[in-house]
Each structure stands twice: as structure tokens, then as C-alpha cells.
From TrEMBL:
The keyword rRNA processing does not apply. Residues 1-78 form the 2Fe-2S ferredoxin-type domain. GO terms for molecular function: 2 iron, 2 sulfur cluster binding; metal ion binding; oxidoreductase activity. This is Carbon-monoxide dehydrogenase small subunit. PANTHER family: OXIDOREDUCTASE WITH IRON-SULFUR SUBUNIT, XANTHINE DEHYDROGENASE IRON-SULFUR-BINDING SUBUNIT XDHC-RELATED. It comes from the Bacteria. Keywords: 2Fe-2S, Iron, Iron-sulfur, Metal-binding, Oxidoreductase. The keyword Oxidoreductase applies.
């Protein structure tokens, strides 16, 4: 089947999508966007998180057909022009990236949190990131990064 969708502001028509193919597969293997990561393919780790019509979802759990006519935004789509999004910058600045496998999903989750709650408490940060697993960092630097991103966004 053909699936028409918009990804990071660009319209795509993807042909020969098979039944059961995931949105994650379409993004990574057909559209060449490797930002969303494929780790568990079971909705457990959050490494494949993307925005679907503005709502974070696990792209491994979304059938490609469900994305028909909808807007997807991946971690690649957060940057504007030459500049990284403040959340992306904060993850680098806070040293919140080790192997980096969890990072794209965490950045989408953090980006969504700060958009909804510009000055999140630590508890709100932990809750918002609860679906995103990281094997490397122990989470403290990730939480530092979210605090830093929120402060930088608030400062304009
Ligand atoms: S790969 Fe989608 S939640 Fe783990
Ligand atoms: S930095 Fe390696 S899994 Fe999070």
C-alpha cells in the first residue's frame, strides 16, 4: 500500500508498505531518518519516540498505515536551520549523552514536557521521562539536561 505522510515538514508518499510495517521502519529504512532508534520494538524503551500530530508516541508501536495523512516530527526535525534546539544543546552541555542510543527519544520526551510545563519540577521531569530507558547515565545528567533546557528556554 501507499502511505502519504508529512515528516519534519516534508510530504512523502511511501510505496509498497506491507501490512504490519511500523512507522519506525518507514522512518529509518525507507526515509533514511535514523534518529529514532530501534531497541526493543515492543514499546518498552522509548528510544523510538517521535511526535505524531504533536503527541509523543513509540514509533515501533504505530503501524505505518496509521500515519496516513498525519504529521510526524523526529529528533532530526527539532533543529532549525543550522542551530540545534535548546533541548538538544542542553543534553550535550550537561553531558547527558553516553552511548546515545536513548538520547533521541529522551530529547523528544523532554521537548514535549517543556512545551507543556515550562518550569517542571524534578518529579515532573522523572514522570515525563519514565517511559524512556537509559542503560548508561544513571539519569542524573539527563535530569540536569532537562532542567538546563527549561532554564535556557525560559531565558529566551
Ligand atoms: S524500540 Fe520502540 S519502545 Fe523500544
Ligand atoms: S546514553 Fe546509553 S542508553 Fe542512554
Amino acid at each position: 500500500m501507499r502511505v502519504n505522510l508529512t515528516v519534519n515538514g516534508r510530504a512523502h508518499a511511501v510505496d509498497d508498505v506491507w501490512e504490519g510495517e511500523s512507522l519506525l521502519y518507514v522512518l529509518r529504512e525507507r526515509l533514511g531518518l535514523p534518529g529514532a532508534k530501534n531497541a526493543c520494538e515492543q514499546g518498552e524503551c522509548g528510544s523510538c519516540t517521535v511526535y505524531l500530530d504533536g503527541v509523543p508516541v513509540c514509533a515501533c508501536l504505530v503501524a505505518a498505515g496509521q500515519a496516513q495523512g498525519r504529521e510526524v516530527r523526529t529528533v532530526e526535525g527539532l533543529a532549525t536551520g543550522d542551530g540545534l534546539d535548546p533541548v538538544q544543546e542542553a543534553f550535550v552541555a550537561a553531558g547527558a549523552v553516553q552511548c546515545g542510543f536513548c538520547t533521541p527519544g529522551l530529547i523528544i520526551a523532554a521537548h514535549d514536557l517543556i512545551a507543556r510545563t515550562p518550569d517542571p519540577s524534578d518529579a515532573e521531569i522523572r514522570e515525563a521521562l519514565a517511559g524512556n530507558l537509559c542503560r548508561c547515565t544513571g539519569y542524573e545528567k539527563i535530569i540536569d539536561a532537562v532542567r538546563l533546557a527549561a532554564a535556557r528556554k525560559a531565558a529566551g
